[in-house]
Fold each of these.
Amino acid sequence: MSVAQTVDGYLWIATKNGLLRFDGVRFVPLTLQGDERLPSSIVWRVLASRDGSLWIGTSAGLSHWVNGHLINVVPSGRTSHIVEGRNGTIWFTTQTGAITGRLCQIAGAGFRCYQQTDGTPANPTTVAEDLKGNLWVGGRSEVVRWQPHSHDVYTTEGLSSNQDQIGVTSLAPSSDGSVWVGMAFSGAGIRLQQLMQGLWKPFASPPFTNTLQISALLLDRQGTLWIGVYSQGIYRVRDGKVEHFGSSDGLSADLVHNFYEDQEGNLWVATTAGLDLFRDVRVASFAPNQGLDIGEVDGVLAARDGTVWIGSDSALEALHGDDHTVIRSGKIRPGAQVTTLFEDHLARIWVGVDQTLSIYENGVFKQIRKGQDAQIGWVVGITEDIDNDIWAEVILKQDSRQLLRIRDFQVVEEFPTSQIPAARRLAPDPGGGLWLGLINGDLARMRQGRAQTYHFEHGPNSILYQVAVGPDGTVLGASTYGLVGIKNEKQQVLTTRNGLPCDIVNAFLSDAKGNLWLDSPCGLVEIADTEMQKWWRQPDAVIAVRTFDVLDGVKPGPAGPFPAAGKSPDGRLWFGRGDVLQVIDPAHLETNATPPPVHVEEVVADRKSYAPREGLLIPPLTRDLQINYTALSLTVPQKVLFRYQLEGRDTGWQDPGTRRQAFYTDLRPGKYRFHVIACNNDGVWNEEGASLNFVIAPAWYQTTWFRVLCIGIALLAVWVAFRLRVRQIARRLNARFDERLAERTRLARDLHDTFLQTIQGSKLVADDALDPATDPDRMRRAVEQLSVWLGRATEEGRAALNSLRMSTLERNDLAAAFRRAIEECRLQNSMEASFSVVGEPQEMHPIVRDEVYRVGYEAIRNACVHSHAGQLWVELTYSTDLTLRVRDNGVGIDPQLAERGREGHFGLQGMRERAARIAAHFKIESSAPAGTRVELIVPGGIIYSNAASGHQSLGEKVRALFRKLGLTHDPDES
């Protein structure tokens, strides 16, 4: 029903099914909060106030939408028209019946209405304000220029034959003080009038007639009058000319409700079937239903007199200003194919039609002949050289070709393809000769009857559509594989690799500034001269281009079978594209200088929607975050580009193109700022854009206090680990000291029990020998005794050293070590000794093996020295456990001595301590008749290297054993 645009850029659409908000891409229904409701879902009028609020007129009252809240101001009546005065006063008309209505104004939080006694019409139908601040009110039979305390009435009586059904439907005050008045009535009369200085001035100009019922009027910023009617669509009055646009031309419906001009100058038309947008396009079209009478554009020639000639498969048409001429039968027979158009230096028009070539001059066609034959072939290329000779490339029968030179309307020279390669397009060379666009896609230069070919890399089916030569000798060619060029004998090809939107180039033209325009299936492409010079210098350079596509009015798709282009004297560029002729004026391309307002519309966190507000709190553990934003450029919303950055996450601007959503996954808890900017269709950026600050709440284990607690626990754990490590090191040192002390103690015992006693005995013998005596025999015996004692001391010292070193010299051979100990014993004693090994020897842990050896060595030595036995048995058994038994048949040991040891002697005590250290079972049994029996049983899981218990390594078992005993073990020492 009507349209309005608020200052934030949104377009609001009033319909009979509610109120919609439009950003150029999406329609969104008005969202109300809580118990807020419109008086009716039928919305007749909307007005965007200058303060940013929105007035909504429904069939049951007037409402005010301000700051996101709805206020119902007028509780009843249909609000049909709303205007805002220059002083900010809101005026509206309300109707409570078919013929009952009032003019009202908003006054504070309420409203005030005026009656007919105040000078208003009996039933106000429309209201408008002029540039001077006068309020104009239309009624059923009058128009009133009204102020609260003064008014002027202009009656409509006499304007129609049916006074009972007359009604003013719309008013459009003009800048010259006049008012356009649109009316609807059933009787005869002119329904569009201009009220000027109190006088009615009717308007009726073909195709607009006085029979049309006016439904809406609008004077746009350029002074153009738009007329909406109930059954014929739209009429536009500009510079005294009337144009029509209806449903047959693409309008959604022929019944127009309202007009609205937005901030960018676009015109919106509300009809019974939809919403239509009228805007200026850069590229205008002439088609069979838009000014052309022909169905195919096969040739375009912009002549020097301003006439644009268009050739097709059926006629030749000329456009000159607003006039157009179609040349058909009698001059060009119906069904004739126009293949070529060309203007020579005398402004004569050369036209190739079917297999003929004619000159059109002063309304007369004159044919060119080859001898007496008027059919010279199908002319596909034509040009004029510097000598003013005309050259034509023609196709003969069986698709053979010839190049013809024409002088004085006669063919004077022919060049077959055996002499000159077959061409498709021709262009004069400023240095003399011709440039040929060959049918195989290459270029060739012809001079003095000879051709030099320039080959380019391309496919087998390539086509060269156009060739042109600049004043400096630069050659350009339009082809299916790019824009080819030759400059100073240097060949180049401009393609998509250099920045073109597509490779195919149908035609090209240069504008008045020297910029190059390319016609391609992707649209019209503008390349600035500076960018072209950059490409000439650097063939691989990526250049900046400007593309005009279907959104700018360009007809999509490929050109017709004969692509053509021309530049008229006024600077406009004309391109033939299949069934349509298109024109662009490079000198008058209006730029959309309005930067688009940017808004953040919605935040969606894990599929739950949130309204954007500063400091928005997002729930913890949010995985998927979507931010919807928009930019309100309604001219070409499809070309609006965006950039956004999430401060706290993104390190730079993101370029989503035209996408209007930003997506993030697994954002960490914290504060973020989302910033988005946008540009309109002409690249004008709103650098300020829109921003939103929001917070993602942390889970309990993501909070600061939890992190502090974790850090504290970690520091405490480090401190505890440090203390434990210090204690472990201390225990290891103490264990090493204990080991050394124990070894010293054992050595001291050995030295005390054996070596020192022998030394002491030797000293007594020496002392006895030193006593004064004259008995040589006694002296000799003393010396002999001393020698024996010293020999024993040597053996005992060697035995002590062997007990320290012997096991470290052996790998794992306990049997060999015990054999040496037995042999050593037999040197000191004449007892018989036997040694036996039961089971297969196994690898043993060296430390545990040493302890076993020392215990066994001590037992063998004690038996050898103290038992006075005649026989010694030693048995070493490898089984599940390691068992060592040492037995003799000597005098035995006192049970108390076997249990506690002799005071001052440490042999038995050391054996017990070593057995306990390796968790072995140690037992001594002794009796006088049976001798002494020593038994040591070491668990196999401790001593055997290959023993496995629960896949635990030997080292781990030993370390576990040592920890159990409160000892430490240094692998390096072992």
Amino acid sequence: MRRGIRIWIGYLSKVQRVFVLCFLAGALHAAPALHITHEFTNTNAQSLIGLPTGTHKTIVDKQGNLHWSHWSLQRKPLDSPFGFSGQLDGALIIGSSLETAGSATAFNAESQSLYKGRYPFVVTQLRAGNLSLEELAFSAESENQGLDIVRLQCTNPDSEPAKIGLQLSGKWRNLPAYANQNALVTHNGYLVAFVEGQGVSFASKHNGLTLDGQWSIPARSTLTLWLKLPYDFRAANRAELPDISGPALLEQAEQSWQTIWSKGIHIQLPEKELEDFFYSSFAYVLILTERDRSGDLWILDGPAGYRQFWGRGEYFQARALDLLGNLGLSRDSIEHAFRIQMDDGEWDGPPISGWPSWDNSGGNAGAAWDYYLFTKDRNWLAQAYPHLRAAADWIRYHRAESDLEIGDVPPGAKPIRREIPWSCKPETSPPLQPGEKPYWSGLLPWGYGDSGLPEGHAFAHNFFCLYAVKCALNAAKKLNHEEDAKWLSAEYQSYKLAILQDIQRALKLEKKSPAYLPAMPTDPEAAWSQSFVAVYPAELFSPDDPLVTGLLTQVERTERQGLPTNMAWLGFSGVWPGESMNVAETYLRRGEIQTAADMLVAALNHSYYTNVWKEEIRVDKTLPVACLNSHKNLDNQAGTGDMPEAWGNANMVDLLRDMLLIENNEALHVLSGIPASWIGVGQEIGVGDAPTTLGGKISFHLRYPSAGKMTLDFMPLANGVNLVARFPIESGQKIASARIDGRSVTTFSDDTVSVKHAHAPIRIEVEFQ
């Protein structure tokens, strides 16, 4: 486009050129080049409503029906298989039709979205003929009674009245509900739903299993009904329900989320869709938490099949809670992880499965260390330290098992291989020379591969567990446990050396160039999503390491729809939007700002219209999946796993925050990941009350008042901070002058101004050419 503009300008007079260039300077910067289209969303999408840390997670399907599982953590039986909550044993099905001359035309859903762009309330737009019907589903709480609510608004633009048929059917704990006046009630007396509003009458159909409503909508008018679904409530006690109107409940629900958001980080972006996505992701992370019957807080991965706790996922979700200022919930989740740790220090997961998922140790330990970094609470760290030390101890002793996999080992001494319910594919084992150690020598024992990795000795498990040892070492140093620090330091170096040596052996098995960070000792090209843990958070490899560069080269060669493939179960035939944002974190740390931003936007465009994700999405079914016994018949754009996938929304929060501000080498870098295209003349970017690991919260505000000028107001930490402020200016432009509080300075580069030990509010003004 810009090349075409330059050619056209060449035909103008000098005076005309000056005028046009001045105009274009503003026009090209007038709006950020960012729009979330959701164009690559999965076809089998579903949405979610619920209360923060609440027991009920209600799925809203694409037609606007409600489904929920009663097998919450508080009702979880002692023997609970994986996916115990996946059996959705409650439902409210909402059927609607326009009735004319003895025939009925069903209302069909045309779109779904979030209420006002960011509230975790699902708006479904339906249409029949000229009539529109809007369903707004949300959760609320009044006087300690939780309930789901559906507001039905029907608009009749015609000059004649319309008759709407409304058919409601439902169940509770797999018991069908029966019509009872304006309600659905089970035979054992539980109230599933009831209707409030004018212009509607009800009858019973299908042997009482359908509450059949007739709703009259006058000409050129809009009428509203309210469907209320109180949690675990008996119909006989209906008079005891809080007498609050539907509009008041909606206002109360809005206010509750505004209050939650107001207590955390505040962000202001020119692109409101992106800002809204950040806040709605915040909401989903909170909804996908839950307390069990003992009061422990679980960070969950999904509302149904993945209503479980994975330590490796907890790192990213707990970090999101830290970044959002919800440190109390983060702490509660970490302390839950402490209580499920085995007495020998092992953390596997999910906890009811016993699967040997060793990376859980790194996720749990990393979440604990992050919490300390944000709070600097030494007393809490002292309480957490025995758990960090025990995990490191378990890792130290069990690494020896990997050398017992092959060789002259008596049967009684061979390590056990725990049963895993399903298998992806076996780990290959190339022949060894006499006396040669296994390819996985010094690593953790055989374990669960997950995410398209063969069962065996995934490097990702070891990257994360090496980080667990590092967290224990960091804590020992902070707490002055000198003897522990000695052996932890020795263990860290020994473990790190073993990993690096095994990587060097794995490189010889690679069939593509350049050399890249391998996923498995004997299967380097296995799914590579979790390989990036080696960069973030483990920091085993720098973002610019040649092996990381090589891996990104492999990723870029096989990208589809703007995202990496070969991320997990779907192999090269699918993408994983949530994990793609971890790849974007690597680009961000490499300084490849536009690439990181492009990958974020591509991930957002794979979300559903209510800002939620499935785990993976099939993009090319002509390509094989990673595990031949799963998902091979999945159609293009269909998704796998649970939805919402909490990792996705947590990773979105983590990545966008890191693009706005990130700690690096005891300095705070602001705006280091914001592309120039995200802000135009006359626009602003603001961050307020942002927690940091440097000892408190910071705020800043960037203004772009006119072409060639930007101003940054920065509110530092109470104890001061080294500030590195990057200004999002176009490539090819450079800062020509900079002033701090009105005084000219020379501590700037092409797009960055540095300030040592900023301890008071400052204003940085730059001019660029």
Amino acid sequence: MEKNAAHDERVMSIVAMALRQPPSEREAYIRLSCESDRQLYEEISEAVDWEGRMGSFLLHPMIAFQEFARPFEAGQVIAERFEIVREIGEGGMGIVYEAFDRKRKQRIAIKSAKPGFHRLLSPELEGALKVRHPNICLVNQIHTAQTEHGEVDFLTMELLEGETLSARLKAPAKLTENEAHEIACQLCAGLAEAHRSGVVHRDLKSANLFLCPTEDRGVRVVITDFGLAGVQAQSDEIGGTPQYMAPELWRGEKASKASDIYSLGVILYELVAGRLPFAEGSAVEQLTNRPPAPRTIADGFGARWDRVVLECLSPSPCDRPQEVTAVLAALEKKPVRKVPLLVVALLAVAALGTPAVRTRLFDLIWPPPNVRLAILPFDGPEAAAVLGGGVLQDVSDRVGQLRRGRSIVVIEPSETLKRNVHSSQQAKEVLHATHALQVTAHQEGADLVTKGQVINLNTMVALRSFSGRYAPDNLTALPVALAGEVSRALNLRVMSSARPLSPDATQSYERGLYFLRRDGQSFDEAIPLFEQAARLDSLSPLPLAQLAEAYIKKFKASKERSSLEAAQRSLRDAESLSPDSIAVLLADGLLRETISQYEKALEDYRRVQVLEPRNINASLRIAGVYDELDVPDKAIEAYRQAIELDPDYYESYEDLGEYYYYRGNYTEAAEQFQKTTERAPGMFDAYTNLGAALSDLGRDAEAEQALLASLKIHETARALNSMGAMRAYQKRDAEAVEYYRRAVALDSGDYYYWGNLGDSSRRLGHLGEAQAAYQKAMNLASLELQENPRLGLTRSFVASFAARLGDAKRAYTEIAQALQLSPGDAKVIRRAVLTYDALGQRDEAIQVLSNATPQLLRELDRQPDLVALREDSRFQRLLANTSIGGK
């Protein structure tokens, strides 16, 4: 039911947006929005056509044509407390009044729903009520009043006086760079605090920003209408405001931090250029392009604006800054007034370097602002405060000793105490600090429990929040942990040397690493060794970080939720010791990947590159995340960077080979796997991968030799499965079944092996065994999909298993979603062809093959289940084209 509801919501969103486009552009918009999902395209095209014939019934519902009575009138007292003074504004679904709160004795604003819109408030507003920040309109409470029109919802909120940014931009006098910079920074500060609190705005635009004059002739920027944008109002409000909407919203996807950052980019563009980045009605251009740089339209602004704004306006969410704080940091960098020729040369070098190198060079040219960090006293019971005095002085000393590329002054806790400064606001006003470390602490038994933040005092945004628990035997790790939190929050380049592992723990730790890295399956041997090392050295984060990775690998193999929870506990303990260490960052990134928080994983891995620019593991993991996000150019770039860092390291070639393999480029995959075996001749998995790629290329003799080499070193389910697949392609299903049975005996938790066993059993006429194998495969794949719904490949297998089990409806639904999630994945395309062929949908199978690589087409020409498809003249034409121009 939820899937159907989500699908219907997406369909209606795309239909509504399509109807806003000029008739001549609707077809192009629909095709772009639906991407490769033909079924979705046909459904939406039919709905748009119907809507046109019905005279835009959807965009103009009957309720929109009614003349509404006003819910409240001047002089009326509602909820026995709020006296309506006057009406001050009206929107599509609500009215704003000035009112007087008799209880608090102050003027307020009230926003009420019009009669007929009996639920004004979206669920998001409940979270928005909890956000408190100077740059967010203060919403106090949700109320319901009984009126002659029935129940009417209304909000009590801060009364703002001034003008909207939209109105200011229409004024004859253009904003200066200083004015624009002040507005941009305050806007970023408010939005960052909302995102930190888990609230997405959904309809950020210049009309929702108020510019309120301050007593010192400054301006306070206030974001309004949090949580209200999710409600669909009249036709011009369905799904948000088009010219501020991120491309993914036009495709019917959910609003997110990334879509808010796109809207932020539109507003920043307006601040510089004085106009919107795209012309009204240019949906197709907005879906695929970046606009011209804003400084090409208006002069008087520094170069940093173009870079910041255009990154926010990237069509792909993963190419945008992952956090608003990153946008704010880029805006706050101080530009060099005159750029010498040396800088031009440095920029040329930066363009060729790694992301870490580029970051360092940009910081040389546009250095970050100076930092005055106040270490505030512990906030907590007296016992914790006494315990924490020396700890905070240690933190102060450690931060002061960090090597860095920016000027930092540390205001020590003794100074803050002497001046009676206990809050972040006092640190800003009394000490003129720019940042503060604020920590609360209390004791629970013998343990000290801490919670804290590193705060940017200019914006009152928490750059980083953290918590930890410290037993008496590891309390000395607290200063290291707090210094690490500061280092990470302020993006300091180099931390002081990490504490070495004690000699007693080293042997267990190194043996654990051996098992963890050996074959990806020896986590059960690694776990007790890391636990022993952690007991022997309670102050080092290394055993705990590796223990987290071992549990993550166990979770991936077993799908046992308890393993994931154990990984999370181990990682929390590691972070409480040293949150900014390489091992902890890598473990946190792997955990984020596992639970589909890819943007957070990228943040962790990029931090590793800042701390250690030559870390190959970080480059490989960044490549893997971009692979998951289906951003091929960036994935390949990261793989190549890893190879350049150490051309003799086998894993870089292996990972790149797997990347090519799953995109159907078997020739390139085989080449990379061959390089892996040359550099690591004892790695049995490398021979297994090489055998699979050679088999798909039809080079069976070479493939068999590679697989036999793998099995000779170590018998694994993967190698047995690959031998079975090769026999199946040779029409030797009886032999294939025996290999598959041995594979599932070794590893009964892999749906791929069970699915292959089902295919060969079916072709042999063993229908009972085939059905049992398919059902087992379906159960395993469905379980994996529950853990991570974004796995397009897994979803494609679910579709093919459903087709073989006779569930045609689910097969259609799952394969359409799989193609949308992973449109460039050759293995997904392959499964789609098999699914449609099993369903008897030859036309759909041929349609999907229009996106297939030449090598995938050649492999399918040998597929034993596609005999009839291979004889189709359309398939033969596609195959002939690969012989003419394909590789």
